[in-house]
Design brief:
Layout lengths: L1 H15 L4 E9 L2 E8 L4 E3 L2 E10 H9 L4 H12 L19 H20 L6 E8 L4 E10 L5 E5 L6 E2 L5 H10 L1
C-alpha cells in the first residue's frame, strides 16, 4: 500500500513541475525550418522585464510525427481542448491575424499547432536548441541570457551563458510576437 501511495505522490508531484510547451513561432537556421515553443509554466515577470525559455525543433521531424496515426484518446483530448476555447497564445498576435482571414486555413492551423504542442509535451523528440530570453517591455528590446544547442542524440554541442547585448525588437519578428504575448 505504501509503495502505491509513493508512486501516486511522485507522479502527481512531477506533473506539478512539468513544462507546458506552447507554440512560439518559427525560424530558419542554416536553411532548416524550425518550430519554436515557449514554456508557459516558467515565465517570470519583474517590473518591465519578462524572462522565458524556448525550445526549437526541426519542422521536418515534427511533421513526420504528425503523419503518424493518432489514437482515438489523443484525438478526443485535442478536440476537447480546442472546443473548450483553447487557442495558442501566439495566434492572438498581429503576426498571426492573416491566419483568420480564411476559416478553413484557421482551423487547419489551429489543429496543426495543438497537435505540435501535444507532441512536444508528450513524446520524446530531440530539440535543437534551448534559449533563455529576456524581454524589456519598456525599452522594446530582447536579449538572450543562455543558449544551448544539441546534436541529434541530445548531447550538448555548444552552450553560452552570457547575456547578449539588448537588441531592439524588429517588426514582424518572433520577438515582436513575444512582446505582444508577454508584455501586454
Amino acid at each position: 500500500m505504501r509503495k502505491i501511495l509513493l508512486v501516486i505522490l511522485i507522479s502527481t508531484s512531477l506533473n506539478v513541475f512539468a513544462s507546458d510547451w506552447q507554440y512560439a513561432g518559427g525560424s530558419v537556421v542554416n536553411n532548416v525550418n524550425e518550430i519554436l515553443f515557449f514554456d508557459a509554466n516558467k515565465i517570470s515577470k519583474s517590473n518591465n522585464t519578462v524572462k522565458f525559455w524556448t525550445k526549437s525543433f526541426q519542422q521536418s521531424k515534427l511533421n513526420k510525427l504528425l503523419e503518424k496515426p493518432q489514437s482515438a484518446a489523443t484525438i478526443d483530448l485535442l478536440a476537447k481542448k480546442v472546443t473548450s476555447g483553447y487557442i495558442p497564445k501566439y495566434l492572438s498576435t498581429s503576426a498571426s491575424k492573416s491566419v483568420f482571414d480564411n476559416k478553413e486555413k484557421a482551423n487547419q492551423t489551429l489543429a496543426q499547432l495543438v497537435l505540435y504542442e501535444h507532441i512536444v509535451n508528450s513524446e520524446f523528440i530531440q530539440h535543437k536548441t534551448t534559449i533563455y530570453w529576456e524581454l524589456n517591455c519598456k525599452n522594446n528590446t530582447v536579449s538572450s541570457l543562455e543558449i544551448t544547442s544539441f546534436d541529434a542524440k541530445g548531447n550538448i554541442e555548444k552552450s553560452l551563458s552570457n547575456k547578449t547585448n539588448a537588441n531592439y525588437i524588429s517588426p514582424d519578428s518572433n520577438a515582436e510576437s513575444w512582446s505582444e504575448m508577454f508584455c501586454n
